[in-house]
Amino acid sequence: MALDATMRTRTETDSIGTMEIPADAYWGVHTERALENFPIAKRPISVYSELVRGLAMVKQASARANREIGALSHEKADLIDRAAQLVIDGKYHDQFVVGVIQGGAGTSTNMNANEVITNIALELAGREKGDYAYLSPIDDTNRSQSTNDVYPTAIKVGLSLMLRSLLDELELLRKAFLAKAVEFHDILKVGRTQLQDAVPMTLGQEFHGFATTLGYDHQRLTENANLLYEINMGATAIGTGITTHSDYAPAVLRHLREITGLDLATADDLVESTSDTGSFMSFSASLKRNAIKLSKICNDLRLLSSGPQAGLGEINLPAVQAGSSIMPGKVNPVIPEVVNQVAFSVAGADLTVTMAVEGGQLQLNAFEPVIAHSIFQSITWMRQAMWTLRVNCVEGITANRERLGAMVGSSVGVVTALTPFIGYAAAAALAKTALLTGHNIADLVVDGGLMTRDEVMKQISPARLSGLEAVTAAIPIVQPVENIVTDQRV
């Protein structure tokens, strides 16, 4: 970090040498070196507040565990505990300044947390920042720990906390689609397969399908969240637990469970757990699934609202902003479009996570920073995308009832509902005639003597056409198929 000549500083020393640190900064020399070494993303870890809170929770749990097993004095442990709580409560997050992308497997992030929490604790004790002879970032705040167990555990805690808000937003979006399904329950429309007219359905059924698929995604995300509950605290450097007391791991787990409210568990094999990041890959994949399916729904919304005059024009999306700098009156589906772009980003982030997981070597994966950044960004963007899709789009969607009714009335797709009664060949002949002449299907069936008007209207009622009322038996075919004459006139 470039220092102004007039800025007050303090001097801190590490194994490499001395550095001047801004006097009012709560970070120290290790963080300052990271600021110089990793000017990559221009985004500090504080952009992910749940990650900062996760780090503070790990430090707080460790302080309590170290006090319990006698590895730290009550005075030091209490100071660290109180300082960490302030960070958990949302204070001092602006002091977590190291970049989200960094070398060193997260060591810079861990040291940023150690230094900030230590200097907060020093102030609580009435001491000056940097008085590490009284309370040390490494010997005390990092006691019984290594970056290699602190960092992945903090990521998992942070992601678990963040997922709660994502799931809440996903549920609100599901309910918004479900409300539209109820609102549109009686509106018939033409269903489509391969972008071609198929058979009738209701607009409510279509929106109910959207709600259902989001409900399934909620289940999958919840299931995959359990993968984040296995932690490796007590593993220290490579999983052997060097520098820790044998009672530390169960103690820190107990305290971390209490602090986070999460059903955490210590991995059975700490060596494997320290080197493996597969849980992040699986969790990222479930995020991608949700994003891609949400993007497909947005594709459908854009198609259904296309036009409004020369497209499908079945529904109206809320007009939230002008769509063109040159075409007056044009309004574009900008909300679904932005959700599509978020989905593209999430898919790319998932590939990044996959490659970073593969890139691990021997007893550690050095690429957890980009894994963390990719997943935290995906959740952040998806949460906001779901909110804007719900509030600025779905809740305001209306149906073009007259247009939908006209399209169903002129669609040859309704003849499919009559095939159990008049046979496929006759239905196909009638469909061809309707396409050539534009005549109404019901009229052609009645005029051909195949069914009475009452019978036809019963079978093409909204309940029958949408499958809400099952067809149980066929009525007798009135006229043989060969007697059907196809009108070739246009």
Topology:
Blueprint (H helix, E strand, L loop, with lengths): L8 E5 L4 E5 L6 H9 L11 H21 L4 H15 L18 H18 L12 H5 L5 H37 L4 E6 L2 E7 H23 L4 E2 L16 H13 L4 E2 L3 H6 L2 H27 L10 E2 L17 H25 L9 H25 L5 E2 L1 H9 L9 H4 L1 H14 L3 H7 L5 H7 L2 H4 L25
Parallel strand pairs: 5-6
Antiparallel strand pairs: 1-2, 3-4, 7-8
Organism: Microbacterium kribbense
Protein name: Aspartate ammonia-lyase
Keywords: Lyase
List its salient traits.
single chain, mainly alpha, Fumarase C, Chain A, domain 2, Ribonucleotide Reductase Protein R1, domain 1, 3 domains, two-stranded antiparallel ribbon, two-stranded antiparallel sheet, 18 helices, 8 strands, elongated
Fraction of residues in H or I helices:
40-55%
CATH fold type of the largest domain: Fumarase C, Chain A, domain 2
Our count of helices gives: 18
CATH architecture of the largest domain: Up-down Bundle
- Work out the radius of gyration: 32 Å
* Share of residues in strands: 5-15%
CATH superfamily of the largest domain: Fumarase/aspartase (Central domain)
Q: Provide the structure class.
A: mainly alpha
Shape: elongated
> Ends: how far apart?
78 Å
The first-level CATH class name of the largest domain: Mainly Alpha
State the total count of DSSP E strands: 8
Major sheet: arrangement of strands? 1-2
| Overall pLDDT metric | 90
| Domains (count) | 3
Protein name: Aspartate ammonia-lyase
Keywords: Lyase
InterPro entries: Aspartate_Ammonia-Lyase (IPR051546), Fumarase/histidase_N (IPR024083), Fumarase_C_C (IPR018951), Fumarate_lyase_CS (IPR020557), Fumarate_lyase_fam (IPR000362), Fumarate_lyase_N (IPR022761), L-Aspartase-like (IPR008948)
Pfam families: FumaraseC_C, Lyase_1
